[in-house]
Design a protein that fits this description.
Elements (H helix, E strand, L loop, with lengths): L1 E9 L16 H13 L6 E2 L8 E11 L5 H9 L6 E9 L9 E12 L12 E3 L5 H8 L4 E4 L14 E12 L2 E8 L6 H13 L8 H7 L14 E8 L9
Length: about 250
């Protein structure tokens, strides 16, 4: 059996996240169906992350163990011929058996998009939230800088999560604007459940004047989900990049 690393992109609008569920259509299920049609065997697919319903990915890494002779571009083409238009594999490569798409990752980068205009834009309806109030990106960049560093992000973890270690290291974080499209970006060694969306929700509170721009350190120190802002809607979130070190550092988008 050979372990193959598949790198894919998907529009998460129609799916209930990545992980297989009994009563909903997910990206993992659709990919497993395609693999079974191509190889004749329903291979388990291990993903780099568990994205929520409506979340998108520009780089999502997953592995399969297969006896199929198909490799590289041949496997990529065969899978894409059996996948819907909103999921696409763009690279397939062989990796060693000790590679794990989640636990071998050294970090991830997420984007969150906001259409900041008086009127909504139908072209961004499934990929950005709509905010009418003008967002002061300079002010929010000052606030977002307080996310950077190694912190206990318990305040930014969804209530009910079973994770024990809530310490994460944020390497970079900020806000950019291109016309009416505002993008929040954050890169870290790992993320808690709903962490990025809660970070965005807290920044939106600051933008709306509900919180002071220097409130982030006190929210972090509270170690309490109730201290942070609301969880921003899923549709604005994109897993943009997964990073690997060592022998897997050449895995590119």
């Amino acid at each position: 059996m050979q372990r193959l690393l598949l790198t894919l992109r998907f529009d998460g609008t129609r799916y209930h996240g990545w992980q297989v569920q009994n009563n909903a259509v997910t990206v993992q299920q659709i990919l497993q169906d395609a693999i079974e049609r191509v190889t004749g065997f329903r291979s388990p697919v291990i993903g780099c992350s568990r994205t929520d319903a409506g979340v998108h990915a520009n780089m999502f890494c997953c592995t399969i163990d297969t006896a199929s002779a198909l490799r590289g571009k041949a496997m990529t083409a065969a899978l894409n011929a059996n996948l819907p238009r909103d999921i696409a594999v763009y690279r397939c490569r062989e990796v060693t058996q000790d590679f794990h798409p989640r636990y071998s990752a050294s970090g991830k980068r997420y984007l969150y998009r906001i259409w900041n205009a008086s009127e909504r834009n139908p072209f961004w309806e499934n990929y950005a939230i709509h905010q009418r109030r003008v967002i002061d990106t300079d002010r929010l960049n000052m606030a977002a800088a307080d996310y950077i560093g190694k912190h206990d992000f318990a305040s930014f973890c969804a209530a009910g999560s079973s994770v024990q270690d809530t310490v994460r290291s944020v390497k970079s974080c900020g806000i950019s604007r291109e016309g009416e499209l505002v993008t929040f970006y954050v890169e870290a060694d790992g993320f808690l459940y709903n962490m990025v969306r809660i970070m965005v929700g807290t920044l939106l509170d600051i933008s709306a004047g509900k919180r002071e721009y220097d409130c982030i350190p006190s929210v972090i120190q509270a170690h309490n989900r109730l201290a942070a802002g609301a969880t921003a809607p899923a549709k604005g979130l994109i897993l943009n990049r997964v990073y690997y070190d060592g022998p897997f550092a050449d895995i590119e988008i």
